[in-house]
Amino acid sequence: MKSRILIAAVAIIVLPFVIQLIPYGKDHNNPLVISEPSWDSSQTRELFYRACGDCHSHETTWPWYSNYAPVSWLIAHDVDSGREHFNVSAWGVQKKNKADEAVEVVIEGEMPPWFYVFPHPEADLSDRETSELVTGLRKTFGSKIELEK
Question: How far is CA 48 from CA 33, 69, 95, 105, in A?
Fold first, then answer.
């Protein structure tokens, strides 16, 4: 019984160091900005980058904790996925850019996700700012849905 506890304790102590050797999530490159959409206003662009830009552009700010696994894996996955689905830094070039869904996910409160807002309080937009962002995104990208407010 004591040997099992000792093995478990050693594993708990050693494992966090060993997983740092896995290279995924540590390549914090920001590709060049190819092109941006024609924003309806500088306010829309500012709100977008505050709440969405880290995952949906090539202008990601990589926090210090993005260098340590397993958090680095989660952040790299989110940025890769965000850029793949909607990327304002490859506007008009990237074939798959779900701009038509941008308004919908902001209105429904799906973006930015809570786990992003928690360490990035600047992304926690007020109701007024969210409304301004939604209006600006609709003007910039259009939308399949109508505002109900």
Answer: 16, 28, 21, 13
